[in-house]
Amino acid sequence: MISGEEVLKHNTRESCWVIVHGQVYDVTTFLDDHPGGADVVLRHAGKDVSEIYEPLHPKGIIKETLNDGEVNDALLRSYVDEYIGADQILGPVDLRSNITKALPESAGKDPASSQEGPLPLSLCMNLDDIEMSACRIMSRRAVTFITSAADSLASLTQNRKDWSKLTFRPRVLRDVTRADMTCHVLGKKSRLPFFIAPMGMAKIANDEGELALVRGAVANDIPYCVSGYSSIRHADLIACQKEVGGGGILWYQLYVSKSGCETTRQMVRSARDLGYEALFITVDVPVVGKREEDERYKAELDYAAGHFSQSSSGEGAPVLRGMHSYTLSWSDLSYIREEWGPSSGPVVLKGIQSAEDAKMAADLGFDGIYLSNHGGRQLDYAPSSMKTLLEIRRFCPEILDKVQVFVDGGVRRGTDIVKALCLGATAVGVGRPFNYGIALNGVEGCNKVVQLLSDEIQTTMRLLGATELGQLGPEMVNSTILENRLPQYLSFFKSSSSPKL
Ligand SMILES: Cc1cc2nc3c(=O)[nH]c(=O)nc-3n(C[C@H](O)[C@H](O)[C@H](O)COP(=O)(O)O)c2cc1C
């Protein structure tokens, strides 16, 4: 048994201990690999961090990891095994001793303390109402994490603006009693042509986290692409899907970790064995973008605590934010596909932002491409998914017959979704609004987001003169403004060599 006083002495970068649920861990060597950065751990070094740790990490992630043989969620184990060895569990803390507790932090005033309460869901008329209402009740930490985007926010704002630059060309005098929104995605039928985009750490928005999103996906029979950084164990999400009736479609989103090929293989294997129906490999995060509001928030906490960054990287060291593989290349995708296996379901590349890469993915036989700039969180001034889609239509339209195309970023209206479908998208991803929905009222909030979008899609279809999605086509949209802004010259005109997988 280790006393609380003893643990408190280990509060530096050289020796950093923490207590989680009664166990003392030496996390010194893990500091630089902590996904949230070393500073957040160092701020609480020597203390009992259970209350802060709990909402952000899947239950039992450390304990089960170290409990050999009893782990059934290798997706988590592979990650933690990599960083926390058995010798880093130092033993139970003496509960009679003086234990210093780290309390959940908040920099500045939480929106939750504002006088204005949330709007009841029944008074939310669109996704902007849902966002405004959720931001009134979420902690500042949650608002910061969910809303933040890269640098000058150019990609973030352009995402929304580009949807508004497309206008419709409706046909009238058609019988539109019926408006069938069924769509076929990656070999499955979905009731609606949109899905829940992958977002890590959903527990930051609501205690149920990803479970609320799984329940919502099942209840509405739509796909949910679960983030590899889920704050609920993947095994529990799959179990939940079965418990609530087995509808919906769950896809697994993979981040390739910098810790190497074996970790990645293990994650892919576990996702496959758990029964995820498709693998989405995120390829736009060799490093994490410079999300200044996130960084400001952390800096303010440090400043308030009189704690200054103990970052180990010296001056002049390369800035490689995050813990993803920054060497990931086209040729690495072959081992990932091989591990997933040919009969385990489709494989899609998420984060494609140019016609060249779209063509490369199609030529290499991927089942889908997911055009996305990560909700403006990665490269500032990256193209919106709509610009990339139009670029593909102009420079390599033949690939639209070979791969399914997913788009996301700034989608807040049914009209945005219909525009994307008219121009060749198979289905459309919606991110932040689902986090805002569950923040307001768990699965009910998720259902409300689905209901608002589905109502808007149906109405748009009817007003366009379409009774099923197959009738939507490019002639129903005027995209001239965006087409005039497309690049003139693409690199694949000069290169004949594509990598082979
Ligand atoms: C809070 C948050 C967490 C995210 N986490 C992931 C993730 O774990 N994996 C991933 O591929 N994309 C992630 N994304 C990007 C989304 O999948 C999606 O591309 C983006 O949110 C779409 O833009 P929208 O939020 O404007 O709808 C995240 C986005 C947000 C806002």
UniProtKB/TrEMBL annotation:
SMART domains: Cyt-b5 (SM01117)
Residues forming coiled coils: none
Domain FMN hydroxy acid dehydrogenase: 119-482
Stretch forming the signal peptide: none
Keywords of this entry: Heme, Iron, Metal-binding, Oxidoreductase
SUPFAM superfamilies xrefs: Cytochrome b5-like heme/steroid binding domain (SSF55856), FMN-linked oxidoreductases (SSF51395)
Presence of the UniProt keyword Ligase in the record: no
UniProt cross-references to Pfam families, sorted A to Z: Cyt-b5 (PF00173), FMN_dh (PF01070)
Molecular function terms from GO: heme binding; metal ion binding; oxidoreductase activity
Cofactor(s) named in the record: FMN
Superkingdom as given in the UniProt entry: Eukaryota
Domain Cytochrome b5 heme-binding span(s) in chain numbering: 1-88
InterPro entries with a match to the protein in the record: Aldolase_TIM, Cyt_B5-like_heme/steroid-bd, Cyt_B5-like_heme/steroid_sf, Cyt_B5_heme-BS, FMN-dep_DH, FMN_HAD, FMN_hydac_DH_AS
PANTHER family: CYTOCHROME B2, MITOCHONDRIAL-RELATED, S -2-HYDROXY-ACID OXIDASE-RELATED
Protein name listed in UniProt: (S)-2-hydroxy-acid oxidase
Organism: Knufia peltigerae
